[in-house]
Amino acid sequence: MENKYMVIYQEMVKQIEQREYKPNNFLPSENELTTIYNTSRETIRKALTLLAQNGYIQKIRGKGSLVIDRSKFDFPVSGLVSFKEVAEKIGQKPVTIVQSCELMDAPADICKQLKMKQTEQVWKINRIRSFSGSKIILDKDYLLEKHVPYMSREIAQDSIYAFLEKELGLTISFAKKEIIVEEPTEEDRLLLDLDGFSNIVVIKNYVYLDDASLFQYTESRHRPDKFRFVDFARRSH
């Protein structure tokens, strides 16, 4: 026979997912839940602990159990994955809008970011990511033309990394990442739905090939309400 706390946990998961308990609202108190489920406080605490462990609630001392907004998307900080791979993993179907895709002489600031000569050219690709009708990410990619001789809107619409690895045979090895919060630029406000938001989360990626060649610089500019940036850390001894 299934443990009672597990039955309660599963029922409460269903209620949260069906929004009977709405995000950013508190669950009934432990005393109220013992009455609702006709069980002991210890059983309720076990069910709540499981809800917290699986990301459904956050326990706040002195206040209770807050329902977490699970519409946020988990973006791995340490991993090196494409946007398409992240979207597929979380079961989302976003829309990608290729705002620009052009071969150009790199501006001075991009030359500095990519440690490149001003005589070299880069592919500049701007892509807007839209979820449920809201434009919430602006990806600005710069790829060195000497490593990426060809690019198109069709490729950018699908997956740049799939093209680089499967068609060009490049081995993407590692990246250095910086995460900052700043005020939205005029471009951010023009291209994204930022009404009511005064900050934007910017992830800067410096991406290297297996021979340690820096070939890509990216700024992913995220509306802050829809994302959690997650990592896994292990303590060294």
What radius of gyration results from the CA coordinates?
22 Å
Distance between the termini: 42 Å
> In CATH terms, what is the fold-level topology of the largest domain?
Chorismate lyase
- Total strand count, please? 10
SS strand fraction: 25-35%
Counting helices, strands and paired strands, the structural category is alpha+beta
Low-confidence stretches: none
Note down, in words, how this protein is organized.
The mean pLDDT is 86. The protein has 237 residues and is of the alpha+beta class. It is built from eight helices and ten strands. It is 29% helix and 33% strand. The strands form three sheets. A six-stranded antiparallel sheet has the order 4-5-6-9-8-7. The longest helix has 14 residues. The protein has two domains: 64 residues, Orthogonal Bundle (Arc Repressor Mutant, subunit A), CATH 1.10.10.10; 158 residues, Chorismate lyase (3-Layer(aba) Sandwich).
Write a compact overview of the structure shown:
The chain is an alpha+beta fold and about 240 residues long.
What labels would you give this structure?
8 helices; six-stranded antiparallel sheet; alpha+beta; Chorismate lyase; two-stranded antiparallel sheet; 10 strands; 29% helix
List the helices and strands and how they pair.
Layout: H1 4-17, H2 30-37, H3 41-53, E1 57-60, E2 64-67, E3 73-76, H4 83-89, E4 95-105, H5 108-114, E5 121-131, E6 134-144, H6 153-158, H7 160-167, E7 172-182, H8 186-191, E8 200-209, E9 214-222, E10 227-230
Parallel strand pairs: 3-10
Antiparallel strand pairs: 1-2, 4-5, 5-6, 6-9, 7-8, 8-9
Helix pairs in contact: 1-3, 2-3
